[in-house]
């Protein structure tokens, strides 16, 4: 999907019941006749991200088909990434492609503003002594104490980004803080304010480790971003190296003429 994220749909928790007419004399399987109209509504943007879909029991009864037929129709859309099934939350339209403008903001805050409900998994949190490469990235001395953090940013339980950050130990948020807030919000709580940054954006394909982190096939397209953020005194407050699932995410550049 390539539609931009929009505000949450106030009807998101009201099950959507599609107007589906089945041709029982057709050679097309019934499950495909059920899935196709739903696919068209999702791809056209008629069904908003996060919208709850009628459950398979109700669908089977209403359309007079077997429950396995209704289940297969929904599962077909799940397998293609158009629907997401989660215990306790039902079957919902998968979050639409995230378009993010390039600015000095955190991914977590941008997703919240776009109407998503992001969740963060902290994969690792390590206090260590900076090696030569890390010291160069943080403009500190080799052997200075730093914190290295690896996190996965999720939307609707789908991994969107795998993020690696390096920070000077004295300003680094705690593991508990990072589990509930974005990195920049944590830094702000500690009185650390990013005022400028250098950033580069690129693209590559996923290796086996990337594929595992983002739950995507190896060789899938990735967007990459490296950022060094500075405070008002031009001290480095964090270095980030992030990868994004390109099927769900893109950067947006705003350009002006002379």
TrEMBL record:
Record has GTP-binding as a keyword: no
Pfam families the UniProt entry points to: GntR, UTRA
InterPro entries: Bact_HTH_transcr_reg, Chorismate_lyase_/UTRA_dom_sf, Tscrpt_reg_HTH_GntR, UTRA, WH-like_DNA-bd_sf, WH_DNA-bd_sf
Keywords: DNA-binding, Transcription, Transcription regulation
SMART domains for the chain: HTH_GNTR, UTRA
Gene Ontology biological-process annotations: negative regulation of DNA-templated transcription
Molecular function per GO: DNA binding; DNA-binding transcription factor activity
UniProt domain HTH gntR-type: residue ranges: 28-96
Protein name: HTH-type transcriptional repressor YvoA
């Amino acid at each position: 999907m390539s539609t931009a994220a929009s505000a949450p749909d106030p009807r998101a928790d009201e099950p959507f019941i599609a107007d589906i007419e089945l041709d029982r004399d057709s050679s097309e399987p019934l499950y495909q006749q059920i899935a196709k109209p739903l696919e068209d509504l999702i791809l056209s943007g008629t069904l908003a991200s996060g919208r709850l879909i009628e459950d398979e029991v109700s669908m089977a009864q209403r359309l007079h088909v077997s429950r396995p037929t209704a289940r297969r129709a929904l599962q077909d859309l799940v397998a293609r990434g158009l629907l997401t099934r989660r215990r306790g939350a039902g079957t919902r339209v998968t979050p639409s492609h995230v378009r993010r403008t390039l600015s000095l903001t955190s991914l977590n805050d941008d997703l919240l503003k776009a109407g998503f409900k992001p969740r963060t998994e902290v994969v690792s949190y390590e206090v260590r002594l900076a090696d030569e490469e890390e010291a160069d990235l943080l403009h500190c001395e080799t052997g200075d104490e730093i914190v290295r953090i690896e996190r996965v940013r999720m939307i609707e339980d789908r991994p969107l980004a795998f993020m690696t950050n390096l920070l000077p130990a004295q300003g680094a948020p705690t593991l508990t803080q990072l589990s509930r807030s974005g990195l920049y919000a944590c830094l702000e709580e500690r009185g650390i304010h990013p005022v400028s940054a250098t950033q580069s954006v690129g693209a590559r394909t996923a290796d086996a480790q990337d594929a595992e982190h983002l739950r995507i096939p190896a060789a899938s397209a990735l967007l990459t971003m490296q950022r060094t953020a500075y405070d008002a005194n031009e001290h480095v407050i964090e270095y980030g190296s992030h990868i994004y699932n390109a099927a769900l995410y893109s950067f947006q550049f705003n350009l002006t003429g002379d």
